[in-house]
Design brief:
By secondary structure, the protein is α/β, with parallel strands linked by helices. The chain is built from 9 helices and 12 strands. The strands form 2 sheets. It has a 10-stranded mixed β-sheet, sandwiched between helices. A two-stranded antiparallel sheet has the order 6-7. Helix 3 links the parallel strand 4 and strand 5. Helix 1 packs parallel to helix 7, helix 2 packs parallel to helix 3 and helix 3 packs parallel to helix 4. The N and C termini lie far apart (43 Å). The structure holds 3-hydroxy-5-(hydroxymethyl)-2-methylisonicotinaldehyde. The site of 3-hydroxy-5-(hydroxymethyl)-2-methylisonicotinaldehyde (PXL) has 15 residues, from strand 1 and helix 7.
Amino acid sequence: MAPYIPRVAAIHDLSGFGRNSLSVVIPILSTMGSQVVPLPTAVLSTHTGGFEGYAFEDLTGFMEKAILHWNQLDIRFHCIYSGFLGSPAQVELVQDFITYQQKNDPLVVIDPVLADNGKLYATMDMDMVTGMRQLIGHAGIITPNLTEAALLLGEEYRPDLGEEALKSWLQRLADMGPETVVITSAPLDSRGKVTSVVAFNRKSRHFWRVPCVYIPANYPGTGDVFTSVLTGSLLQGDSLPVALDRSVQFVTQAIRASYGFDYPRRNGILLERVLSSLNGPVLLGSYEWLDEREE
Ligand code: PXL
């Protein structure tokens, strides 16, 4: 009998320099015991956060042929995990691929990579926002940051959003299709610069929150690291709050490992220094619940 190893179709770009997208998705999921089957959406010389003049090749035509080949081979995926897409045409391709794989009941994780800190990424526009709104309707779980959540909902980006408004945003995003919504970089009232990750599951109706330690540095690619650990953890059978806890702890640890070194932030976190900790014992203790529970 073949050993059970979850197989993940990882639909992201390959940005050569800068430690984001497939360059972090592959090592993280492999370390956590999943087989990664990459489907590059574009190849770049670097990511677009802080570099000028990068080379960019759109791979829509290649994606179409690769998906056709996988379908002919009848490859079964336990998880479909998409991130940065290069064009609205790719949204259609990913949607059709999810529909085709539906018979295998995959965990569909969509990270609607569009923007951060109130600003669209260089290659993104409102057509991509419209495409992502459509795509998340096919997801089991989505992981927008606060800026992406605002864009998906057509709301203004407000870094000081209160708890009740955040809960309403989570519910409204879940109404767009996904069973689970996770918002990263969410404000935590009354705790100064501390941010948090908040989550809602439409079936259980439970809300969760994991506070994040504030470190005064912004490294590109940390969203990709977060969602990759979350996906790996869920595929290992962890519950949602445990998977959230592990993801926040790993990103925090990676930033701490990097922050003391003096190098350009755009080079990304020092993933190589912390990757092996994904195989260490799981230490829980950060997650909180935001709803009233019965005893
Ligand atoms: O980490 C998100 C991301 C993915 N892919 C590319 C990016 C970014 C963020 O800047 O530029 C190409």
